[in-house]
Write a structure and sequence with these properties.
Largest sheet: none
Shape: globular
Distance between the termini: 73 Å
Length: 470
């Protein structure tokens, strides 16, 4: 017997996938998954704005003026706090004050710092409140980031600005080395300073970031598991962790730390993906162990661990996603869910390649790769914005592309999905993908992370010795 389809003539109820593809969306009830999504095993979502058919209601001028005046008062109060913050900085040069005003008073300029626009104001508030407490430690890192953001905003890079940025980076690195981490509260400052350095170094220099991540995480490690602040109080920790994980996957190293994941939090950079980081950490550890052992018993145990990770990650879904509607706009929700999906697929692909070399079980890897690439593009079409902080899953999915024409289009997408603030990383990723594809076609490498070519640029000038680490 055919299931009848319920339609509400007052609302547009097509799910997001059917809406984007302009397909007929049929479902038994308004809350049930549609026939198409259920048949293709997709998660059926309707998170874009759903509005009544017909003309929109118009509110009176009094309502609009009240909203505008309230927003204006809030902005004026916030500007006063920024001015007071800058006035408290001793011997601040006019040019430096101008840069800090740009950095702290324009939330939209912080778009490269957060996964979605809903976090811009929160990120701005966090930066403003931290500076007065430790101005000497943070000022130069803020100035380096301000120059970087101005260059990204203008689309032009000058030698003078880059030289000035490197000068501020050098001072900020000295501040990081001199920072004593003696109590749990100091970890937040260390992670903030290290993360701001990571942003500016990726933009101005392009190398040395993994060493900074390792230094910060190893320095603060004694406080992990005792009184480490949660993700709301220490929002930069996860950023350092994922940057180091990416480097560890490429070079088959053990990460410094696995992150402590709270019950539910939407991270400013990793969104809903925090629960997946422990699995990425474990994959790095297994990869390193596989590289350094030939013992049959140990290899069997590692394969069993990979099977266990695969089972958990394959069925993983973001928790409490129903709460997103109360906190985020529809475009941000689409991006958050898409980011979570590509990180999940990335973890499946990493585990798959640890179990199977190129030429073995390639069909499954290709399915996951295509699914991830489709998710990247679908989110961009719906929201008119590329996903942020997805460099890791993009590279993992891209290495599995085998068709020549798809490889060409994948290279064109690098600038969209490899972090916009890291032009050196974008260039290195294009070279890496081209060479790994070539090696794979000629059977010169069995796994992408065994290639002699790496997507993460490294240099000897900024290494662990800079931080006094043996």
């Amino acid at each position: 017997m055919e299931v009848s389809v319920t339609r509400n003539p007052k609302l547009r109820t097509a799910c997001d996938r059917c809406y984007e593809l302009k397909e007929r969306c049929e479902r038994a009830t308004a809350s049930a998954p549609c026939v198409r999504c259920e048949r293709l095993s997709f998660v059926c979502l309707t998170v874009r704005p759903v509005r009544p058919v017909g003309r929109r209601a118009h509110y009176g001028k009094d309502f609009a003026s009240r909203m505008t005046s309230g927003k204006r008062r809030k902005l004026e109060q916030y500007q006063l706090s920024i001015d007071a913050c800058l006035d408290a900085l001793a011997d601040l040069q006019p040019k430096d004050k101008e840069l800090l005003l740009f950095f702290l008073s324009q939330p939209e300029s912080l778009d490269h710092f957060v996964v979605c626009s809903s976090f811009q104001a929160e990120q701005q508030h966090s930066l403003v409140t931290q500076l007065p407490a430790t101005p000497l430690l943070l000022k130069d890192a803020y100035l380096a980031c301000a120059i970087m953001l101005k260059q990204l905003q203008s689309g032009s890079v000058t030698g003078v600005d880059t030289s000035a940025c490197i000068g501020y980076i050098s001072k900020a690195m000295s501040a990081l080395r001199s920072l004593p981490v003696l109590r749990p509260q100091d970890t937040v400052l260390c992670h903030t300073l290290g993360s701001l350095l990571a942003f500016s170094i990726y933009s101005a220099i392009g190398v040395g970031v993994p060493d900074i991540c390792r230094y910060c995480l190893s320095t603060t490690n004694p406080f992990v598991g005792t009184a480490m602040p949660d993700a709301h109080k220490d929002p930069w920790q996860s950023f350092l962790v994922v940057l180091e994980i990416m480097d560890c996957l490429v070079y088959r190293r053990k990460p410094t730390r696995t992150i402590l994941v709270p019950t539910f939090v939407v991270d400013r950079r990793l969104g809903l993906c925090l629960p997946l980081l422990p699995y990425y950490h474990d994959l790095c550890v297994i990869s390193n162990s596989l590289l350094n052992t030939t013992d049959v018993g140990i290899l069997a145990r590692l394969q069993k661990q990979l099977d266990g990770i695969h089972t958990v990650v394959e069925s993983w879904q973001p928790s409490h996603s129903d709460q997103l509607i109360e906190q985020f706009n529809s475009a941000d929700i689409v991006n958050l869910l898409a980011q979570a999906k590509v990180y999940r697929l990335g973890a499946l692909l990493v585990g798959h390649r640890l179990r199977f070399p190129f030429g073995c079980e390639d069909a499954q890897a290709e399915i996951w790769s295509k699914e991830a690439m489709m998710e990247f593009e679908l989110a961009k079409r719906v929201t008119k914005r590329s996903l942020r902080f997805v460099t890791l899953p993009f590279i993992v999915a891209a290495v599995e592309v085998r068709d020549a024409s798809l490889r060409f289009s994948t290279l064109q997408r690098v600038d969209d999905y490899v972090d916009h603030y890291a032009p050196f990383m974008q260039k290195a990723t294009k070279i890496f993908l081209s060479r790994v594809w070539h090696e794979r076609d000629l059977n010169l490498t069995s796994r992408w992370f065994d290639s002699i070519h790496k997507p993460c640029p490294v240099i000897d000038a900024i290494d662990a010795t800079c931080f006094g680490i043996s």
